[in-house]
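pinging the channel bc i need a second pair of eyes. not urgent but kinda urgent?? the chain im working w is below, pasted from the shared doc
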Amino acid sequence: MKENRIHKFVGDQLSRWPLACDNFRALKNVQVREVEVGGLKVKLQFNPARMVSSAAKLNKEDIAKRRCFLCRENRPAEQIMMKFEGRKGKKYHILVNPYPIFQDHLVIAMNRHTDQSIWQRYVDMLDLARKYPDFTFFYNGPRSGASAPDHHHFQGAPEGLMPLENDVDALMAAGSKELEYLTSVQDADLYQYRKFTRGIFVLRAQTAKSAAKMLYRLLDCADIPEGENEPLINLFTYYRDGEFRSIIIFRSRHRSHHYFSEGPDHLTMSPGCADMAGVFIVPVEEEFARITPELLEEMLDEVTVTAEEEERIKRRLTRTQPLLQVGIMSGQEIVFEILSDGAGMRTASLKEGKIEYGGALYDELYFDAETLSTMFAGPSFVLRDVTIGVNFHWERKEDQKFAGALKIIVDKGRLTAVNVIGVEDYLLSVISSEMSATASEEFLKAHAVISRSWVMAQIAAARNSSEGEVPVGVCNVPTLMCDLDARFNKDAGHAEDDVYEYVKWYDHEDHRSFDVCADDHCQRYQGLTRAVGPTVRKVIDATWGQVLEHKGHLCDARFSKCCGGVMEKFETCWEDADHPYLQPLSDTPDHNPGAEPFCSTTDKEILGQVLSSYDHETVDFYRWETTYDRKTLSELVSRRSGVNIGEILEIVPLERGLSGRIYRLKIVGSEKTIIVGKELEIRRILSESHLKSSAFEVKMEDDRIILEGSGWGHGVGLCQIGAAVMASRGYTYEEILRHYYPGSSLKS
C-alpha cells in the first residue's frame, strides 16, 4: 500500500507536468551498458536530461545568484507535493524529481531554505526508510554531488536499482569476509566494504537510536574540510528484513580532473549517490561510448578518500579512550536541558537528602549521551548558570553546553552535576578553554600532551587514594577549593596566642565523587562552550593517547600562564614532594639565566593565541604592581584569613622558592601575627580574588603597601606564554616538552 501511494503520487504528478512526464518517459529508452569496476558489476546510463545536474555551477557565488528550485515559492505551478513529518518538528515536502535517474525518482526537501547537513536529520532519513520500505533513500553531502547544497534534501528510488546496494545485501546474507566487521554501538554494527573503491562503510541496526549513534561516531572519525560542517559523504539508507541498513561513502572531492580538462580527456560527470552506488550517469553520448572500466576507476580514485585516510578513519573508529567524570557545578538545585528529547529546561532539587525530579525522589539521575564523542556530534545537554573562574577576578556565570552523559548526585549536602566524557573529548574543551583555539599547532600539541598527562595522573592518584582513608578536610563540592593540610603552629619568638601559622594547598584530592572539577582548581573545562576550532581537533587527534612519563610513572604535568622568567619547584606550591622533571629553571634558550626569557613577550599576536577572551582582561602578567592603603589590606587579610590581625605593621617573606615565589609569609599585625603558606594561600589572603603570583617584593610607604611582582600563576612546569613563544620560533612540541619537563619522555 505504501509503494502504491508513492506510485499514485508519481502518476498524478506526471499527468499534470509535461517536463517531468517527458523525462520519465525518456528513461524507458536510455542506453545502458554494464562493466565491472573493482569487482562490482556497474551500469553506465546515457541520460542527457541529467546535464542540468552534472554541469551545475556549485560555487557559492553562483548558488547565491540563482533562485533555489527546491523552495516552494520558486517551484513550477505544475509541481505537487506530499508532506512528511520529521522529528522535533522538522517538515519535509516529497517531490517528483523532474530530471530522473530512476523510475519513481523522488526528492524529499525541507520546507524551509537551510543548508545541506545530515546532522540531526539522519533520523528523519531512517523514519522515511521504515515508512517506505520499498524505497532506498540517499543523501548527497555538500561537494559530494548535491546540486542544491543550500537547501537540505534527500532523494529516493525504488529498492534494488543500485548495484552497490544489491551487492551489500548479498554479502550480508552470505556472511562474506568482503564485509569486514569493525565495531558496534548497542545493536548497531559497522563494517567496511572491501570492493569497488575506497572509503565505503556499511551500517546495520535494529533501532534508529543505535543507527544514529553509530553514524555520528563514524562521521566523527573523518576529516571535515575547511568551510564545511561535516565530512564529504554519500549516504544510502533503507529498511530490509526488520533492520535499518546504511551505506556510507567518504569523498575527497566532488569532481575528478576529467571534468575540468579540455579535449579528449574531458568527461562531463559529477559523481553523486547514483554514480557512487554503481549507476554512472553520462549526459554526453560520445563520452558514454568511450568510457572504460579503467577511466571509471581513475575517476573514483580521485573523488574518494585516500588509502591513508581510509586507514585513519578505521583507526579512529577502533581506538579507545578512558572515561572521565568531571564535576561541573553544585547547588541546592540544578537547572538543565537534555537536548535529545526536546523537553526544554527542567529542574532537579535537593529534598530530604535525595534528588527531587519529576515529582519523584532519586539517589542519582543519569542521562546517557547521544554519542560519547564531541569531535563531530552536537551537544548532549545544557547546564544553566555555571560559575567559572571561582574566586578569581574573572569569576562569572554562564550557560554551558556539554557532550557526553550527565549524572546528578547528592554530595556533601548539595546536588552536583557530573559530566561523564571520554578523556580525549574532554581535552577538546580544556585546550580551547585554557587558551585560544587558534593558537599554533605545536603549542597546542604540547598542551594536549600535558593536559592529558595531568588528568590521567590525577585519576590514578585519586583512585589509588580512594582505597585508603579519606584525608581530613577533604570536600567534594566542586565549586570550593578545600584545605588538605591546615596546621596552627606556635612561633617560639612570640607569645602563645599571638602567632598563627597555617599552611594549606589545593589539589585534586578535594574531589572524591568525581575525578576532576571543571574550574581552574583542576583544568578549565567549559564543555562545547569553548570546544571550537578545527586546529584543536587536529592536535588532539595527532597526539591521541600521548602522555609524559618519568621512569615509568605518569608525570604530574603542571602548567601556569606565565612563570615570570623562572620556573618553580613542585614543593613550593604543593606537598613536600620532589619531582625531578619540575625544577626551577630559567625560561630561556638552553635554560641560560643570562638570556631573555621566552615569556617576556609583548607580541599581541602571540598573546592573542594563548589567552582566552576573558584572560585578555589581565595585561600585566610578566611584571606587575598592586597597591593597597594599609587599612584596606589589613581588613582584607583579617577577613580572608579569619584572624583579626589589627593594623598591618610588617609583611616579611620567610621562605622563597628559587623563582622568587614566597611559600612562607609572615604578616605582623597590631593584634596578631600570622604565618601563611603555601603559594596559592598567600595569593588568596592578599587579594579579593587571587594575587597574580607569590613572586613579589614588599614596599611599605607611609600608608601605602606596594607589592611588586612577576608572573601569573604558580610557575611550575610549562609556562603557557613561554611555550607559545617557543612555538612561534619554530620549536616542535617535543622540544617544548623537553624544555619544561627535563628528563621526561613521551609515550603513546
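so The longest helix spans residues 441-465. and The mean pLDDT is 87. — does that match what u expected or am i reading it wrong
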